[in-house]
Amino acid sequence: VDRAVEFSEYVAMRGDALVRTAALLLGRVDGAEDLVQDALVRLYRHWERVTKDGDPDAYLHRIMTNLAVDAWRRKRPVVSVASVPEVAESADESLAQRDVVLQALAQLGRRQRAALVLRYWNDWSVERTAETLGCSPGNVRALTSNGLARLRVLLDEEAMQ
Amino acid sequence: VSTPPHDDPDAARLHELLDSATSSLQAGPGLAAHAMKAHRRRQRRLVAVTAVVAALALAGGSALAVSLTGAPHGRSVLATDKKSPSPGATPTDFHDVCGARQSDEQSITPTGGSPYLSTPPPASGNGGASQREAALRAARDSAPELMTKPTVLLRQVRALGPKGTCVTSLAWVIYDHPDPLSVMNGRVNDTCVAFVLIDAHTMRSSGETVACTSHPAPDCPANAQQLGRGPGGPPHLYGQLYRKLPTTSGRWTKLPNSPLTTRFQPVVVWAGDQLIVWGGQSGAHGSTLHGDGAAYDPATRRWTTMPSAPISPRVSAAAVWTGSEVVIWGGYNDLSSASSLHVTNTGAAYNPKTRTWRTLANSPLSASSSPGIAWTGSEVIIVDGQPAVMTNTLRGQRQAAAWNPSTNHWRTLPREPAGTPSAFNVTVAHWSDDRLLVFHGYGVTGDPAATTVDSYDPVTNHWTHLHKCDGAGYVSAAYDLDGQVLVPPYADAGAYLYSPQHNTWTPTAAPPLSTYASAPTSGGGLLILTGSAEGHDIKPGDAALWDPRTDSWAKPPRMPVRPGDPMIAVEAGASVLVWTGNGADQLYAFTS
User: Fold this and answer.
1) What is the spatial distance between Cα B558 and Cα B540, in angstroms, rounded to a whole number?
2) What is the nearest CA distance from A130 to chain B, expressed in angstroms?
3) What is the tens place of the pLDDT at every residue in B440-472?
4) Which of A35, A68, B139, B444 is 20–30 Å from B499 (CA)?
């Protein structure tokens, strides 16, 4: 019961942030929760060991990053939607901006995108980002530098100012 | 933990963009429940694995199971008792990380209908509101399961909150499983049903009748820190790559197989110039116990079968080398069925020179398994130990006695002092210069920060409670190192140097492996081995060698062990011997 309780508590506290990170890692909203779900299954399997050092986040991010970088695709049935739900007016602007940013991210390489997300969304150090990506710090610097430059073009100069 | 990318306007702007782009996203409900269900489905498929774990847990609790399977499992120490009282108003038993047990101070009475909270408990104002709310959500999610299983046999309240800090809140945990083995082998984790969070200070919660005094323990400093976190501590090992370490020389040699059948968890002791392997368990559910043994002499590279022992076959016994005899005491001597778990308080001593046994006089100690044992130079001190089945009211036993090999007499020692936790389930005894150090912990799946230390001075016959609730690491073993005590890493817990003089803990450089076996080396170093099959490039048998002079790790050659093989490592002169228990490849020697 301890594990279940602790795990539920952790997911309750971190679920939103994890889904946001997953969307950024994938460059799309669709599938973000499924990515988190797959990672959580693996995390729960090893919960005691992972939490011994008190940082399930690090483990989970590593799984999510690996899955995203490895072109993860959830095997799930495709459901056809007869009607598209209406979107409230007030959400239009933020959704539009979200789409622009995610579409730009989606055009980056997977490792480049992961490096940017871990480094600049998670605010992780170069070293920790490198450790999670399984590459050298120099590699991370190159990925983020090139990624930022590419994003600048994709999002146009104004968005990055 | 994170280091924001400073003075980089692009980075700051990108963070803003990413933040706003995802601000509308939220996790759907049931995320955790889905993951747990998926895990349970997977678990059911792993019937064989579960059977092994159950067998191991049957034989000795979580520490044993961890050492044999290479993977910690649930809180196997929390076994319920079939004679447990029926649901209703029963005194509950709990421990917090400060070691205070307050079973007399608390009771809980479900007041008809669902015994679960429908509203949050009063906020304590200590900033834990969101944590409590999250816990309550989890409780409500699982409550329907309990509604269909009204049998509540085990109750425990345990600490929540950051490890290594004093308890900030408590969870009321209700298990519904009537089978003690299910609890012991961790299956209860999958059938656990509900809990209710209780404010630690008021011990009140809405919907329940709870009466308790407040804690934490008064001597637990408010600024308690867990060692091993932060820059000096171990990294988050799990799932990481084997760090790029400098390689170091070393050689593994496969030694001749013993005449013993395959077995796990025997007594393995280096007796000056030969290795003694005795007892252990094997068979389905580990229920076959062994009472035979053999000695390996490195000089002749030969095994010799030991004469029949005058004591019953057993596993999880304590053993120590006195310089002339291997003294074996306690352990499980019956694991034939779930209803006949039995531990013993008998012992014997084996002299490898004369190849003779002698029976120890009747001990004043209660029968127990896995007690702490240490040789003082004149006496064998045995301390604590675990009962056959641990319940929420019966765990580690506080007891101590000294056996004198010259007279074959026992001397009962005073009980450990006030402040020693009551609910511990791991005891490691270590003779340090002129006194006995006894480390109490809560198991590798418990709170690693809860380890406490007691010191016993045989001259004054007096105990001193040394250390409490300041974030010590998990203690699985203790070795001498120049007046300090080297606590090896275990599982993902780090390694520490404990100073008895200053009563301080210092983490070593972070171990690069999740550790399943360790032994000191002749040069004052430490060899660790992993049995884990996890990790990208970490394989079972991967090793690391710690150098005390530089406080750094290096990578020796890998031990050719197979996944799943248990490992018991002992220092043996200039080598480290590793017993795997496997019939085909039982014994290896590492020489640096």
Assistant:
1) 8
2) 12
3) 876 544 444 556 788 999 999 999 887 654 445
4) B444
**Mean residue pLDDT across chain B:** 65
The whole-model pTM stands at: 0.53
Task: Give the model confidence (pLDDT) of B320-370 as tens digits.
Answer: 999 999 999 999 888 776 556 788 999 999 999 999 999 999 999 999 988
B-chain residues within 8 Å CB-CB of A44? 32, 35-36, 38-39
pLDDT in tens, B386-400: 877 655 445 677 899
B211 touches chain A (CB under 8 A): no
B284 touches chain A (CB under 8 A): no
In sequence order, the β-bridge partners of residue B402 are B381, B411
Which residues, in sequence order, are bridge partners of residue B196?
Answer: B172
* Exposure class string for B578-592: b at 16+ Cβ within 10 A, else e: bbbbbeeebbbbbbb
Of B386, B388, B391, the C-alpha closest to B155 is: B391
CA distance A78 to chain B (A): 19
- Average pLDDT for B73-94: 24
ipTM value: 0.82
B188 part of contact set with chain A, CB < 8 Å: yes
CA-angle at B463, arms to B459 and B465, nearest 5° = 145
Cα–Cα distance for residue pair B235/B552, rounded to 1 Å? 14
Distance CA(B227)–CA(B510), nearest Å, equals 12
**Residue B175, beta-bridge partner list:** B154
| Cα B327–Cα B474–Cα B459 angle in degrees, nearest 5 | 50
- Distances in Å between the Cα of B449 and the Cα atoms of A52, B222, B474 are 10, 14, 7
Q: Which amino acid is at B177?
A: H
Q: Is B440 helix (H, G, I), strand (E, B) or coil?
A: strand
Structure tokens belonging to residue A9: 């508590």
DSSP of B107-132: EEEE-SS--S-SSPPPP-SSS-HHHH
* Rg (alpha carbons) of chain A, rounded to whole number: 17
What three-state secondary structure class fits B317?
coil
Looking at residue B489, what is its pLDDT? Answer: 82
